[in-house]
Amino acid sequence: MRINLTQYENLNHKDLLPRDVWVWTPPQYEQDSNARFPVNYMHDAQNLFYPEKSYTHVTWGVAEAISRLSHWGFIQPAIVVGIDNTPNRVGDYLPSRPFETPEGKAFIAQLEAEAQDELEKFDYVADRYLELIFAEIKPRVDADFRTLAETENTFVMGSSMGGLISLYALVEYPQVFGGAGCFSPHWPILGPLTVPYLQKNLPEAGQHKVYFDYGTAGLDAEYAPFQDAVDQVMQQKGYRFGEDWLTRVAPGADHHERAWRNRMHIALRFFLGKKDN
């Protein structure tokens, strides 16, 4: 594994909490000084590269997977931009616009009645978090590294709440992100709001790729009915299974970095796979 990280310390945007951003370049970056590379923006960077920083002491293994798969010729090598989370993780990652509808406001009222203290722990700033990525982080990365900056070469990935914000990023900024990788997205927190939001706002098929997965144990055991409903929306919007949309189920897998690490190669081959493989 080749680790070559650049740290942008305490990167901030408007009223967001500061955080560090890490850039990993694949081995091919040093081998060919003229080459440019796709970029994969990933949330929860603490869990990406270093076991000692990871909450579970297990990383996603994304650097290892890209190095290995690209060496074998299965995928294009890609740059990874890891964005640290903060104590406001839930507030940063919870999509905002689904709650702006009358149905969303009614759902908020229900949540407030059931868990007011929990809701008040966070500042809900997902839209500003996305602004941080596309208005500050991406321009800086494109300026400092040899990237392929076009939409079709720009991806975003995350797990759980990070899976939700990844899909939200593609829906809200389809001109920026060409693909979203959503590992074990925590659908229950959006309740009944996911389907109408996607029906209205998901880009029509043809220009984007979306990857979903989930396990069948732990928190992931709750996700099947929500994912089935999302899959129906994907079909209605014209997304073709296996071509520009993929949903995978991992029997027995739990809501854990180890599970997402084990499925990373599937998402990478879906987004970055070479056509002859």
Task: Produce a short descriptive summary.
By secondary structure, the protein is α/β, with parallel strands linked by helices.
CATH homolog superfamily: Alpha/Beta hydrolase fold, catalytic domain
Q: How much strand? A: 15-25%
How would you classify the helix and strand content by structural class?
alpha/beta
Which H/E pattern describes the elements? EEHEHEHHHEHEHEHEH
Measured on Cα atoms, how large is the radius of gyration?
18 Å
- So, CATH architecture? 3-Layer(aba) Sandwich
**Widest sheet: strand ordering:** 1-2-4-3-5-6-7-8
Question: Keywords for this structure?
Answer:
single chain; 277 residues; alpha/beta; Rossmann fold; 8-stranded mixed beta sheet; 8 strands; 17% strand
